[in-house]
Design goal:
The protein is an all-alpha fold and about 170 residues long. It is about 50% helix and about 0% strand. The protein contains nine helices and two strands, in the order βααααααααβα.
Amino acid sequence: MIVFPSREEYIKKNFFELFFEEKRPDFDKFKDLDSAEMHYLVEIFNWDDSTEVLNWIVDSAGCDKGTALMIFWRSSPDYYLGKDSIDDYDKDILYLLEKIIQRFKLQNFKKSKIKYDPAEDFDVQTSISEVEAWGLPQEMFKPTRGFRPIYVGTLLKFLQKHFKTSKKRR
Protein backbone atom coordinates (compact mmCIF):
# COMPACT_ATOMS: atom_id res chain seq x y z
CA MET A 1 0.00 0.00 0.00
CA ILE A 2 2.14 2.76 -1.36
CA VAL A 3 1.15 6.18 -2.64
CA PHE A 4 3.86 7.62 -4.87
CA PRO A 5 4.69 11.35 -5.02
CA SER A 6 3.06 11.82 -8.41
CA ARG A 7 -0.21 10.42 -7.03
CA GLU A 8 0.02 12.59 -3.92
CA GLU A 9 0.32 15.63 -6.19
CA TYR A 10 -2.54 14.39 -8.37
CA ILE A 11 -4.77 14.08 -5.30
CA LYS A 12 -3.81 17.50 -3.95
CA LYS A 13 -4.36 19.13 -7.33
CA ASN A 14 -7.74 17.53 -7.99
CA PHE A 15 -9.34 17.06 -4.55
CA PHE A 16 -7.67 19.22 -1.90
CA GLU A 17 -8.99 22.62 -0.84
CA LEU A 18 -10.99 23.14 -4.02
CA PHE A 19 -13.47 25.22 -2.05
CA PHE A 20 -10.95 28.04 -1.79
CA GLU A 21 -10.48 28.05 -5.56
CA GLU A 22 -14.24 27.81 -6.18
CA LYS A 23 -13.75 24.53 -8.06
CA ARG A 24 -15.65 21.28 -7.93
CA PRO A 25 -14.07 17.84 -7.82
CA ASP A 26 -14.26 15.66 -10.91
CA PHE A 27 -15.80 12.23 -10.35
CA ASP A 28 -14.08 10.78 -13.42
CA LYS A 29 -10.70 11.63 -11.86
CA PHE A 30 -11.84 10.18 -8.54
CA LYS A 31 -12.57 6.81 -10.16
CA ASP A 32 -8.79 6.42 -10.76
CA LEU A 33 -8.00 6.35 -7.02
CA ASP A 34 -7.20 3.11 -5.24
CA SER A 35 -7.87 2.38 -1.55
CA ALA A 36 -4.52 3.72 -0.30
CA GLU A 37 -4.97 6.90 -2.33
CA MET A 38 -8.47 7.40 -0.93
CA HIS A 39 -7.02 7.00 2.55
CA TYR A 40 -4.36 9.61 1.79
CA LEU A 41 -7.07 11.98 0.59
CA VAL A 42 -8.94 11.54 3.89
CA GLU A 43 -5.71 12.08 5.86
CA ILE A 44 -5.15 15.48 4.23
CA PHE A 45 -8.82 16.42 3.85
CA ASN A 46 -9.78 19.97 4.78
CA TRP A 47 -13.22 19.93 6.40
CA ASP A 48 -13.91 23.38 4.90
CA ASP A 49 -14.24 21.59 1.55
CA SER A 50 -17.49 20.01 0.46
CA THR A 51 -18.20 16.50 1.69
CA GLU A 52 -18.88 15.47 -1.90
CA VAL A 53 -15.57 13.62 -2.23
CA LEU A 54 -15.98 11.97 1.18
CA ASN A 55 -19.35 10.66 0.03
CA TRP A 56 -17.72 9.29 -3.11
CA ILE A 57 -15.18 7.50 -0.93
CA VAL A 58 -17.79 6.02 1.43
CA ASP A 59 -19.95 4.93 -1.52
CA SER A 60 -17.00 3.35 -3.33
CA ALA A 61 -16.47 -0.40 -3.37
CA GLY A 62 -12.80 0.43 -2.78
CA CYS A 63 -13.48 2.15 0.55
CA ASP A 64 -11.62 0.36 3.31
CA LYS A 65 -13.06 0.04 6.83
CA GLY A 66 -10.09 1.98 8.19
CA THR A 67 -10.77 4.84 5.80
CA ALA A 68 -14.48 4.95 6.66
CA LEU A 69 -13.65 5.00 10.37
CA MET A 70 -11.15 7.81 9.85
CA ILE A 71 -13.81 9.89 8.12
CA PHE A 72 -16.28 9.16 10.90
CA TRP A 73 -14.03 9.93 13.87
CA ARG A 74 -12.27 12.94 12.32
CA SER A 75 -15.64 14.59 11.73
CA SER A 76 -16.12 15.05 15.52
CA PRO A 77 -19.30 12.97 15.49
CA ASP A 78 -20.29 14.02 19.00
CA TYR A 79 -21.11 17.43 17.55
CA TYR A 80 -23.45 16.07 14.88
CA LEU A 81 -25.09 12.96 16.22
CA GLY A 82 -27.65 13.05 18.97
CA LYS A 83 -28.51 16.71 18.46
CA ASP A 84 -32.11 17.63 17.86
CA SER A 85 -31.32 20.44 15.50
CA ILE A 86 -28.39 20.74 13.14
CA ASP A 87 -27.73 23.87 11.14
CA ASP A 88 -28.35 23.49 7.42
CA TYR A 89 -24.65 23.84 6.58
CA ASP A 90 -23.88 20.85 8.85
CA LYS A 91 -26.54 18.51 7.49
CA ASP A 92 -24.28 17.12 4.78
CA ILE A 93 -21.84 15.92 7.44
CA LEU A 94 -24.66 14.44 9.51
CA TYR A 95 -25.91 12.60 6.42
CA LEU A 96 -22.39 11.28 5.75
CA LEU A 97 -22.04 10.01 9.34
CA GLU A 98 -25.42 8.31 9.22
CA LYS A 99 -24.41 6.64 5.96
CA ILE A 100 -21.18 5.31 7.50
CA ILE A 101 -23.05 3.97 10.54
CA GLN A 102 -25.60 2.26 8.29
CA ARG A 103 -22.90 0.68 6.13
CA PHE A 104 -21.15 -0.68 9.25
CA LYS A 105 -24.43 -2.07 10.57
CA LEU A 106 -25.02 -3.81 7.24
CA GLN A 107 -21.37 -4.94 7.11
CA ASN A 108 -21.02 -3.31 3.69
CA PHE A 109 -17.35 -2.42 4.01
CA LYS A 110 -15.71 -5.51 2.54
CA LYS A 111 -12.09 -4.34 2.57
CA SER A 112 -10.12 -4.14 5.80
CA LYS A 113 -6.48 -3.82 4.81
CA ILE A 114 -5.70 -0.33 6.14
CA LYS A 115 -4.77 0.07 9.78
CA TYR A 116 -6.61 2.80 11.67
CA ASP A 117 -7.19 3.35 15.38
CA PRO A 118 -10.10 5.65 16.30
CA ALA A 119 -8.33 6.56 19.56
CA GLU A 120 -5.71 8.43 17.51
CA ASP A 121 -8.29 11.01 16.44
CA PHE A 122 -10.93 10.95 19.14
CA ASP A 123 -11.23 10.12 22.82
CA VAL A 124 -13.22 6.99 22.16
CA GLN A 125 -13.64 6.07 25.84
CA THR A 126 -15.17 9.43 26.70
CA SER A 127 -17.36 9.43 23.64
CA ILE A 128 -18.80 5.95 24.13
CA SER A 129 -21.51 7.19 26.48
CA GLU A 130 -22.23 10.12 24.17
CA VAL A 131 -22.61 7.97 21.09
CA GLU A 132 -24.26 4.85 22.53
CA ALA A 133 -27.65 6.36 21.76
CA TRP A 134 -26.79 6.21 18.07
CA GLY A 135 -26.50 2.44 18.20
CA LEU A 136 -23.00 2.30 16.76
CA PRO A 137 -21.66 -1.18 16.12
CA GLN A 138 -18.84 -1.97 18.55
CA GLU A 139 -16.60 -2.50 15.53
CA MET A 140 -16.57 1.27 15.00
CA PHE A 141 -14.74 1.81 18.31
CA LYS A 142 -11.98 -0.71 17.62
CA PRO A 143 -8.76 -0.38 15.62
CA THR A 144 -8.74 -2.05 12.25
CA ARG A 145 -6.06 -4.51 11.28
CA GLY A 146 -3.87 -4.09 8.29
CA PHE A 147 -1.08 -1.79 7.23
CA ARG A 148 -0.62 1.92 7.22
CA PRO A 149 -0.18 3.20 3.68
CA ILE A 150 3.21 4.67 2.88
CA TYR A 151 3.09 8.13 1.34
CA VAL A 152 6.45 8.31 -0.39
CA GLY A 153 6.34 12.04 -1.19
CA THR A 154 5.38 12.94 2.37
CA LEU A 155 8.08 10.63 3.71
CA LEU A 156 10.74 12.15 1.45
CA LYS A 157 9.80 15.69 2.52
CA PHE A 158 10.03 14.64 6.17
CA LEU A 159 13.44 13.05 5.66
CA GLN A 160 14.77 16.04 3.71
CA LYS A 161 13.62 18.40 6.43
CA HIS A 162 15.03 16.19 9.19
CA PHE A 163 18.42 15.73 7.55
CA LYS A 164 18.76 19.44 6.71
CA THR A 165 18.04 20.24 10.35
CA SER A 166 20.45 17.60 11.70
CA LYS A 167 23.28 18.78 9.37
CA LYS A 168 22.93 22.30 10.76
CA ARG A 169 23.34 20.97 14.30
CA ARG A 170 26.68 19.30 13.55
